[in-house]
Amino acid sequence: MLFWTKKAVKQAWYLNTGNFCIKALAVADIVSIHEGGLLDHQFRIEQNAPNPFANTTYFRYTLNVDAMVKLSIMDINGRVIDEVINTYQSAGEHSVRWEAANNNDGLYFYNFNINGKSEGGRMIIMR
């Protein structure tokens, strides 16, 4: 997962594949890049495991400071279907289990909000 903090678009071009059109942008003047997992050195989040999964998956994360932690699960349409965590937690390593037995197979998204900073990912329920 890449996070761009500043970009300047130099040019745009289109690629027509016959079935759909792809717009590509040339990006320059990058100030910094964050490759997921550690925002401002406050926390680190691992991809849920197992993934794909049938009924149960685990989220492991490390807080380097005490923090307000919220973990939300969204469906493919972006609707929040479950709020797994919404509590203040102390610094250290944490793990939380999500039970998805009542959800249909498919693609889902998770979002951690820790002290107002968000990071998320994708997961698949497959039975």
Strand order of the largest sheet: 8-7-10-11
- The percent of residues in helical segments reads under 10%
Strand residues, percent: over 45%
- List unreliable stretches of 5+ residues: 1-15, 21-39
Number of strands: 11
The helix/strand order is: EEEEEEEEEEE
Secondary structure category: mainly beta
Supply Rg.
18 Å
**Global morphology:** globular
Oligomeric composition of the shown chains: single chain
The residue-averaged pLDDT reads 78
Total number of helical segments?
0
- First-last Cα distance: 27 Å
Instruction: Let me know the largest β-sheet.
Output: 4 strands, antiparallel
Structure description:
The protein is globular and about 35 Å long. It has strands at 2-4, 8-16, 21-28, 33-35, 43-45, 56-63, 67-74, 80-89, 92-99, 106-114, 117-125. The protein is 0% helix and 61% strand. The strands form four sheets. The protein has a four-stranded antiparallel beta sheet, with no helix packed on it. Strands 5-6-9 form a three-stranded antiparallel beta sheet, with no helix packed on it. The protein has no helices and eleven strands. The model is unreliable at 1-15 and 21-39 (pLDDT under 50). It has 127 residues and is an all-beta fold. A hairpin with a 2-residue loop joins β10 (106-114) and β11 (117-125).
Short description, anyone?
By secondary structure, the chain is mostly beta strands. Helix content is 0%, strand content 61%.
